Amino acid sequence: MPDTRGPAIVQADLTILLEVDHPQYEQARDALAAFAELVKSPEHIHTYRITPLSLWNAASSGITAARVLDDLARFSRYAVPDVVRSEVLEYIGRYGRLVLERDAQGLILRSDDKVLLKMLASQKGVERYFGAFIDDHTARIEQSARGYLKQALVKIGFPVEDLAGYTPGAALDVQLRGTALSGRDFGLRRYQKEAADVFYAGGGVKGGSGAVVLPCGAGKTIVAMAAMSLVKAHTLILTANVVAVRQWIRELVDKTNLREDQVAEYTGESKNIAPVTVATYQIVTYRKRKSEEFPHFEIFNRGDWGLIIYDEVHLLPAPVFRATAEIQSRRRLGLTATLVREDGLEEDVFSLVGPKRYDVPWRELEKQGWIAEADCTEVRVDLPGSQRMPYAVAGQRDQYRIAAENPVKLDVTEAIMKLHKTDRILVIAQYLDQLHELAQRFELPLIEGKTPSRTRDVLYAKFRAGEIKALAVSKVGNFAVDLPDANVMIQLSGTFGSRQEEAQRLGRILRPKSEGQLAHFYTIVTRETRDQEFGANRQLFLVEQGYRYRILEAADITEGRFTPQTGACEVPGPDATPALQSSTEHP
């Protein structure tokens, strides 16, 4: 008889259907997140998919095929199909079959399977990286091919375990302070120390490269500084924008023994090199014409770096992968809230920056009080009658813009701001016309791409001090904005169906609050349009992390039926129209 108690149905195509309302849902979700990817998340049944990359990341963190199969069997309603068992064993079994090492003459690729090694050496796109065979199990690899070989082999389904080691880099005695210069006590949280230790791995060849995945507000910068204190070498840090560069510099000087003259900014505004150099992705990938080389790639070789840190590694521009392929002898640490990339280059992060080394579920840190508890609400609004025909006849891209810029969203925004008049509010949008209209209507300060860095710093400082209660920001507010007191985010529009952007935006309000109050994340979408479709896709990653989105109608907000402090929504009276019926919730 089949076991009908489990919450999951494991299918032969490597997809898994997970019943949300099952008592074991949360346990099964947390287990699946370690080796499967969330694909769809409608109200009652979520779909996960097991992929080679999800299994290789699991294997690199020590998860065995036996554990994966045990978890599948434990939560599956029916017997796990034999083909799933075979594929899990096959793909996890591939991790570690190819090992990159170093001998006295240079790099070697070794495998216990001599047939596999010979087969790969003749594969198109891979053969050029192989040198002479030393014996049946060992091939010589050119030093400059280290990254390119790993990248090429992953693409044909054979990951390489890189144990070739690293150059130490120029020595730099980085130490963490016990008391920050700001006067606050400073120390590593347990998970921050664990993340740094797992990455460094005692300085051995099994560590030194890979990604640490932690929620926004959980202190990824602190993890990086802890790693720097272990590596103790000159460090290059790449991050999203100039604001982030300066935040990194402030944090480094505040919380480590580094002096100001030992930390330099390398941006469009200032191009200095120091033992610790902080640069933007934008300046590194700048070039006047597409036909030219990237002049600032030289930064990777201008210092004797012992560690390169990729902040927001899910944003790593494609050209930087090329540079990273050429510097595989340097230790590399990627920091991110999610390894999801909308361009599908997760394999390049795995092969060139390194596998996932450390991960903590968002809700686990929430339970421990390290990030704020968050309440997520989706508010659905109708498209005005005057815009329905223009929407119907528009192209797909224009359809999204029409729906995303729906003017009714501003009425709902006004009502939400009234509900949270004592809170610190960020209103964020993709389209500048929408932001300008918003800022003018509500007399809000606005930060966009063209806002000078000095002006941004002033506005952020006023927001932190409470002189400004609400701030409008473009997508420049997605990353590295340190506004710990912000506890309400209103999202009017985003970058299509970007899951990582949704995660980053929620992260802007997840810093623990002094009085323990909830963080409130509102996303306003236009019903029965591409805006609603993209909204559902954007929520996928956060749903995987355990967040649930309450669904409200616009009238629930504008007519005062919703109470954010309790999450309660009054049921409208018998004369209400169907569009005004009570809210529902979907995970």
| Counted beta strands | 26
- Measured by DSSP, the beta-strand proportion falls in 15-25%
Helical run tally: 23
What share of residues is helical? 25-40%
Shape call = globular
Q: How are strands sequenced across the largest beta sheet?
A: 19-20-18-21-22-17-23-26
Q: How much is the radius of gyration in Å?
A: 25 Å
CATH T-level topology of the largest domain: Rossmann fold
Number of domains: 4
Query: Distance between termini?
Result: 31 Å
CATH architecture of the largest domain: 3-Layer(aba) Sandwich
CATH C-level name of the largest domain = Alpha Beta
Any idea what the CATH superfamily of the largest domain is called? P-loop containing nucleotide triphosphate hydrolases
Q: Main β-sheet: number of strands, strand sense, barrel status?
A: 8 strands, mixed
Average pLDDT for all residues: 88
Unreliable stretches (pLDDT < 50, length at least 5) are 573-587
Structural class: alpha/beta
Would you write up a description of this structure?
This protein has 587 residues and is α/β, with parallel strands linked by helices. It folds into four domains: 87 residues, no CATH class; 64 residues, no CATH class; 171 residues, 3-Layer(aba) Sandwich (Rossmann fold), CATH 3.40.50.300; 218 residues, P-loop containing nucleotide triphosphate hydrolases (Rossmann fold, 3-Layer(aba) Sandwich), CATH 3.40.50. 35% of the residues lie in helices and 20% in strands. It contains 23 helices and 26 strands. The protein has an eight-stranded mixed sheet with strand order 19-20-18-21-22-17-23-26, with helices on both faces. A hairpin with a 4-residue loop joins strand 1 and strand 2. Helix 3 runs antiparallel to helix 4. The longest helix is centred in the middle third of the chain and has 14 residues. The chain is globular. The C terminus is likely disordered.
